[in-house]
């Protein structure tokens, strides 16, 4: 009998609409499939997150933006190529009504293409993932799996332990008409 690898197991859980806590390129993330409405709903409930706050979506390549009907002009494309892959989350316009459960009425979505091959391989198998920090709203992000377990217990189907992770969150920027606006200073310092 073949023993399933962690990667295969988390992949199966996520494809069935489950939630996992795994290391991302920045911190431990509470992850679920972005295009699975019930997974996203579970994450909001687990985090006790304000309903008007959208989540960051992890993608494994720029082509996955098409799954959200996001077309980028040449200038925006150049900026995406400048920051990705990397620890920069970028807000792009997306007003699709059927994706309101993701953009929460803001008409925008934040994406990040991580510079972390293991995570990108997972995203290639599962599709884009929402990945907020592993903590209830207002609490400190979990730096260890033990801290994440204290927050969520058995309400999470899978925990992947990667030791202590204590990096700053991603830098969050928006791009409008080719202009960059830094909304959250994080792992990457950006000169505008």
Number of strands: 9
What is the residue-averaged pLDDT? 93
CATH structural fold name: DHBP synthase
Distance between the first and last residues' Cα: 55 Å
**Could you name the CATH homologous superfamily?**
DHBP synthase
Share of helical residues: 25-40%
Structural class: alpha/beta
- Specify Rg, calculated over alpha carbons: 16 Å
Number of helices: 6
Strand order of the largest sheet: 7-1-2-6-3-5-4-8-9
Q: What characterizes the major β-sheet?
A: 9 strands, mixed
CATH architecture: Alpha-Beta Complex
Q: Strand fraction band?
A: 15-25%
Order of helices and strands: HEEHEHEHEHEHEEE
Shape: globular
Unreliable residue stretches: none
- CATH secondary-structure class: Alpha Beta
**How many domains, as an integer?**
1
Commentary on this structure:
The protein has 192 residues and is α/β, with parallel strands linked by helices. It has a single domain (6-184), classed as DHBP synthase, CATH 3.90.870. Helix content is 28%, strand content 21%. The chain has six helices and nine strands. It has helices spanning 6-15, 37-47, 74-83, 100-103, 117-126, 145-152, and strands spanning 20-23, 28-33, 56-58, 88-93, 108-112, 129-130, 158-159, 171-176, 179-184. A nine-stranded mixed β-sheet has the order 7-1-2-6-3-5-4-8-9, sandwiched between helices. The longest helix has 11 residues, at 37-47.
């Amino acid at each position: 009998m073949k023993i399933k690898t962690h990667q295969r197991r988390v992949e199966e859980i996520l494809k069935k609409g489950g939630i996992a806590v795994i290391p991302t390129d920045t911190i431990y993330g509470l992850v679920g499939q972005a295009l699975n409405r019930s997974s996203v709903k579970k994450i909001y409930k687990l985090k006790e997150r304000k309903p008007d706050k959208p989540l960051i979506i992890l993608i494994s390549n720029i082509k996955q933006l098409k799954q959200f009907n996001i077309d980028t002009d040449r200038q925006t494309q150049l900026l995406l190529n400048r920051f990705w892959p990397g620890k920069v989350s970028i807000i792009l316009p997306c007003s699709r009504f059927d994706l309101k459960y993701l953009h929460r009425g803001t008409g925008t979505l934040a994406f990040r293409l991580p510079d972390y091959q293991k995570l990108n391989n997972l995203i290639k198998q599962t599709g884009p993932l929402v990945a907020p920090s592993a903590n209830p709203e207002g609490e400190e992000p979990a730096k260890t799996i033990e801290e994440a377990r204290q927050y969520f217990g058995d309400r999470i189907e899978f925990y992947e332990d990667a030791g202590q992770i204590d990096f700053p969150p991603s830098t969050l920027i928006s791009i409008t008409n080719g202009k960059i606006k830094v909304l959250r200073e994080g792992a990457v310092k950006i000169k505008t």
